Amino acid sequence: MSESFRRGLRAGVPFSLVGFLLAMSFGVLAVQAGFSALQAIVMSAVVHAGSAQFAAAAILGAGGGLVPSVLAGSLMNARFLAMGIAVAPSLRGGPGRRALQGQTVVDPSWALANQGDGSFDRHLLMGATVPQYVGWVTGTVAGAFLGDVAGDPDRFGLDVVFPVFFLSLLAAELRDPRSRGVALAGAMIALALVPFTPPGVPVLAAGTAALVGLAR
Amino acid sequence: MTTWLAIGALAVTTALIKAFGPVLVGGRALPPNATKVIALLPPVLLAALVVTSTLSEGQRLHVDASAAGVAVAGVMIWRRLPLLVVVLTAVAVTASLRALA
């Protein structure tokens, strides 16, 4: 086990605790949307992507049907296209191995592994995902069995966990003053698009703000 | 049955989306210009996720108690408090405001 994999494991722990809370609220909402506890848990185990799971479960629960639910979930994941292209040069091995390593890209691991110069520490990336996966699945188990007694998780303020989680990752990126400008631009683009595009698209489209990198 | 199909389909699309970049770009070093753009992607994507998850619900923009919770969290993160403390405080602020409303 490499030193940076171990560093990744440690760095992933605080995010796995927060992920546990987030997954718990997913478990509660999924059961309320008509999922069985087993379905909620299996979904977390095989998808492991919070925003996509929330989006897909909400649409199924509202009777939106198979295709819209999978489409919405996939769009929420569209940012992983950009993240995957970004980490690609830092991965090693043949296409199969790379595809597998690419599965370990989740937002906190990706941000933690970012070395700030366009390259990524792949061992740290993979290490950081391990505790988060455990937290995500066990949190869903807890939520899925609490589901019927918990009531509306929003009442307990659990919906705030998701943005705060990302805000803590963002804070580390804003030390460079030039990043602040593009972060603000990305936020404005995303908010401007919310009323006009399906959920998930605004975040991917905000990525175009990074193109100002070409100008310097 | 629809639920199981949705779970299976979403697992497949998620895996394909995550594999796309690593397989397509492979081990090629990206041109220096592309690297400059990639270096700016983390702040941009994370900022977009923060504002959309706080201020939107589906295709609707809205400001509610969670915005206050996130604002308090922002100050605490700036003061470098531990993440779990920050999250629990933000949850408490949001829940209290909703209870009062």
Automatic annotation (TrEMBL), chain A:
Record has Phosphoprotein as a keyword: no
Membrane topology (UniProt): Multi-pass membrane protein
Keywords from the named record: Cell membrane, Membrane, Transmembrane, Transmembrane helix, Transport
Subcellular location: Cell membrane
Xref: InterPro entries: Brnchd-chn_aa_trnsp_permease
Location (main, coarse): membrane
Family: Belongs to the AzlC family.
Protein name: AzlC family ABC transporter permease
Record organism: Nocardioides oceani
From TrEMBL, chain B:
Bilayer-crossing regions: 6-25, 37-55, 83-100
Keyword Membrane: yes
UniProt keywords, alphabetically: Membrane, Transmembrane, Transmembrane helix
Superkingdom of origin: Bacteria
Membrane listed as a keyword: yes
Pfam families: AzlD (PF05437)
Name of the protein: AzlD domain-containing protein
Species name: Nocardioides oceani
